[in-house]
Specification:
By secondary structure, the chain is of the alpha/beta class. The chain has twelve helices and 17 strands.
């Protein structure tokens, strides 16, 4: 594929610019009844910049048809598999501008690759792929094709998280020394995979989830959120992964991870799916030479900030003291709760705004590309593999790169 004045040219056909600033998108996975599929659909359409027009929502074609019917889609744009969808949508004059891949992990690589090869921009759930090599291939392919690629680490699109990033960037807490982050959940404290829980079934299955469950599913959220806020790069990892909570589980449900960063700082991460009493308690604490910042996903509109020698502060989203880069992401007045849907809406607003500019031939700025990209996806896959490698070596320190 080449570019001609903002138009995508595929196999000699010039695809027209999307009219009226509304992008067309399709979905792979995310059939009716899928939690994350519904979140993606709502997030992508939240701001009216994208419209769902096509899909291959399930390996079961009847389920795809049922989903399409409920979503009022054209039956001719409901496909048996992602390969057929990629090829036929690329051949249409009104084909999709981007695809959302919201399948279990095992299908990410092949689906993303199919759409990239057909000149279609991609948004993919995390973790990006099973292997580091697959993730790096997708990154290279997107770059060679001139296509945008987003990986939906959505917590980075919380207003308070963006403000925390700007505080670090402007030196408000000084040089970072220590990071402590955790993501405890309790939903796999019993063998839910044997009790009809579909989410538990595929996440604990190596054929569908990959080499890790807990680290791959929620540990990568720690890795990306910390990286986004601090800009720190991991140098080495020492990890212990345990399979707890069910008979003969093949994959981890609890992980203790120590981290050394390239700037000399140290970190301690804990993620668990067997922590009874916890739901989605992602919490990040950052300690610098001048102060500290704490953010919790279950109380996402607030930041705890302590400056050296000063009283404790509790900063509230929606107030004028937030940095402009964070304030512009606010959707409701202070005191009204914003949460998970808004985070996904923010990630899709940034992605679709960048894609509209890209299609119009307008150069993209660093601010335009402020969403998790293919490199973030690569880093997440590396994190998974280094944690598993370290655990298999008796928690030995292993190099990240």
């Amino acid at each position: 594929m080449i570019k001609q004045g903002g138009l995508a040219v595929i196999e000699g056909k010039v695809r027209p610019r999307t009219t009226e600033g509304i992008l067309r998108f399709g979905m792979v996975g995310g059939a009716i009844g899928s939690f994350i599929g519904d979140v993606h659909r709502k997030g992508a359409t939240f701001d009216g910049q994208a419209q769902l027009v096509a899909g291959s929502f399930s390996p079961n074609y009847e389920r795809t048809l049922l989903t399409g019917e409920k979503l009022r889609l054209d039956p001719t744009r409901l496909y048996r598999d992602y390969q057929e969808m990629a090829e036929k949508e690329a051949a249409r004059d009104d084909g999709i501008d981007f695809v959302i891949v919201a399948t279990p992990n095992h299908a990410h690589y092949a689906a993303c690759r199919a759409f990239l090869l057909n000149g279609i921009h991609v948004v993919c759930d995390k973790p990006l792929t099973f292997t580091i090599e697959e993730a790096e291939e997708l990154k290279t392919l997107a770059e060679e094709k001139g296509l945008l690629f987003c990986v939906t680490y959505a917590y980075s699109q919380c207003v308070a998280v963006k403000h925390a990033q700007m505080m670090v960037k402007h030196g408000e807490i000084g040089e970072i020394r220590v990071v402590a982050a955790e993501y405890p959940m309790g939903w796999l404290a019993t063998a839910a995979e044997h009790e009809g829980n579909k989410q538990a079934s595929w996440r604990t299955d190596p054929e569908q989830a990959g080499i890790s469950n807990c680290v791959g599913d929620i540990g990568t959220h720690i890795e990306h959120t910390v990286s986004y806020i601090t800009g720190l790069e991991i140098e080495e990892i020492s990890a212990r992964l345990d399979n707890i909570g069910g008979d003969h589980r093949a994959l981890d449900t609890n992980a203790m991870i120590m981290v050394k960063y390239k700037n000399g700082a140290v970190g301690n991460y804990w993620c668990s799916q067997v922590a009874i009493g916890y739901d989605n308690a992602l919490t990040v604490r950052i300690f610098g030479t001048k102060g500290s910042i704490e953010w919790s996903q279950e109380d996402p509109n607030y930041l705890k900030v302590v400056k050296l020698g000063e009283p404790h502060q509790r900063l509230r989203r929606g107030n004028d003291y937030f940095y402009p880069e964070a304030a512009q992401m606010t959707r409701l007045a202070a005191g009204h709760a914003e949460g998970y849907y808004e985070m996904f809406a923010n990630i899709y607003l940034k992605f679709t705004t960048a894609l509209l500019k890209h299609k119009a031939g307008v150069p993209l700025t660093e601010a335009d590309l402020d969403f998790p990209d293919a490199q973030a996806g690569v880093n997440g896959v590396k994190f998974i593999h280094r944690c598993v490698e370290s655990s298999q070596k008796g928690s030995a320190w292993v190099k990240f790169d």
